[in-house]
Design goal:
With 450 residues, this protein is of the alpha/beta class. Helices cover 48% and strands 12% of the residues. It contains 18 helices and eleven strands. Helix 13 links the parallel strand 8 and strand 9.
């Protein structure tokens, strides 16, 4: 680890702002961080063995291609005559896809390319709300709408409810014969003795199905067909996404120690700050609209993987420059329990240029002659400097160029960072026992008619 920096896959991580040499007594000493990295070492080696012995599907997914071919073919068939593609799924079955789709401009008005405009519109409905769903099904042209429904287990109540409501609406519109052309499901393969409601439902209507990877679930599924299907729908190069992810795996296999591997350094820093400095909240704050949903995806990843057994820290999603005006006050001057990651993308010279005369008239001379991107660039560097001066731990991740390969690498980085943090804490980062209890109680309440 040299000056807290590592460089791989088109981005550079710097954790100097978490060290006492920069932020004083509220930062980690290098000796303390080194001790945590030493504890991390066996977990990095174990992760290498997981790869070599093919025990963890996530570490091998970047090498697969057959599922991409199948997804592309299925989407091509589904898209014939389509004007809108609706994605039903909740949590990890949606957030990864949203993150990738946003790279291509989804949910950012005015930035779609001509190629994207010629494609069907993309909509995600990941939160179950009766009024919203009723409005959607009443206003969509169901003849030109296609539905992609994702549930790994096939038993997610929210997703089944959405699917059944959509099927009923299509039937009521006199389109029952067209159902196999209007729907596509993604769920696990049929297993003897294991119920799969989505597969049973869609089989009844002869709806095509893609197989959900059995070894990669929910919040870790963004690089499977679950996350890649929306990326394909938006015209992204999904093979480049996987190539970026593979570059992180390659770095793992080449690492001679934990400090040589970016995700291990990130994980050790987060855990050390929690245990040594009382950090309770992790903030991810990208400075570009195209990574806005990355923060939401990260919140689920970190919270659901590490919040168990009394362990874990609270993840918070933010967006710069917006949240400089809504959350930064707390981060800089509230309780000393926040650790902030600033994710920066080059923006100098990007966007409209500010007229000098009008800027002077507005009393903002310093803006005159600058592009909008110049302002964002200045803020993205000033905020971590200000946090450091306030003695608040801050990590920066600088992206050289935001594209499919880099985003694939970022996704893999954060997933492995989370896995390693979990293992360092003695947790299983892949289960979610508390969530299962809520599901059981929901079913019981519905069954009782309450």
């Amino acid at each position: 680890m040299q000056d807290g920096q590592n460089d791989v896959s088109g981005f550079k991580q710097n954790i100097d702002g978490c060290l006492d040499a920069v932020i004083g007594e509220h930062g980690l000493s290098r000796e303390t961080l080194q001790s945590w990295l030493k504890r991390m070492g066996p977990h990095v080696e174990a992760l290498k063995n997981d790869y070599r012995e093919e025990r963890l599907g996530l570490l091998r997914i970047a090498e697969e291609t057959a599922d991409i071919d199948a997804a592309e073919a299925a989407l091509a068939r589904l898209s014939v005559g389509a004007q809108t593609i609706v994605f039903f799924g909740t949590g990890g079955s949606s957030l990864g896809g949203q993150t990738l789709a946003q790279l291509a401009g989804w949910k950012i008005p005015g930035v779609a390319t001509e190629g994207q405009k010629s494609r069907p519109r993309t909509r995600f409905y990941d939160n179950l709300d009766g009024r919203t769903l009723e409005g959607v099904l009443n206003t969509l042209d169901l003849r030109t709408t296609r539905f992609i429904v994702t549930s790994k287990s096939g038993g997610t109540a929210e997703t089944l409810a959405q699917a059944i409501a959509a099927l009923s609406a299509v039937k009521a519109a006199g389109l029952e014969a067209e159902i196999p052309k209007l729907f596509l499901g993604i769920t696990e393969p049929d297993k003897p003795g294991k119920a799969n409601g989505l597969r049973a439902l869609f089989s009844r209507f002869n709806i095509p199905m893609l197989e959900h990877h059995t070894g990669i679930g929910g919040r870790f599924s963004c690089l499977t067909n679950v996350g890649l299907m929306p990326a394909i729908a938006r015209g992204l190069d999904v093979r480049a996404i996987r190539a970026g992810a593979k570059s992180v795996i390659d770095a793992l296999l080449a690492a001679k120690s934990a400090e040589d591997f970016q995700p291990a350094v990130g994980a050790a820093t987060a855990v050390a700050l929690s245990k040594e400095k009382g950090i309770k909240t992790l903030v991810l704050m990208p400075y570009t609209d195209r990574l806005g949903r990355l923060s939401a995806w990260f919140v689920q990843l970190w919270a659901e993987s590490l919040g168990k057994g009394g362990e874990g820290t609270t993840p918070v999603g933010a967006l710069g420059p917006l949240d400089q005006h809504s959350q930064l006050q707390l981060f800089m001057d509230g309780p000393r329990e926040h650790y902030i990651t600033i994710l920066r993308v080059p923006s100098a010279g990007v966007g409209p240029k500010i007229d000098k005369e009008l800027a002077q008239l507005a009393g903002a001379d310093m803006l005159g002659g600058h592009a909008i991107g110049d302002i964002v660039e200045a803020q993205a560097h000033a905020v971590p400097d200000a946090l450091a001066q306030a003695q608040r731990p801050v990590r920066t991740i600088d992206v050289a160029k935001l594209d499919e390969k880099t985003l694939g690498a970022l996704l893999m980085h954060f997933m492995i960072e989370t896995i390693l943090a979990g293992r360092l804490l003695g947790l299983d980062p892949f289960d979610q026992p508390a969530v299962e209890l809520a599901k059981v109680l929901t079913r019981e309440r519905l069954a009782s008619g309450a």
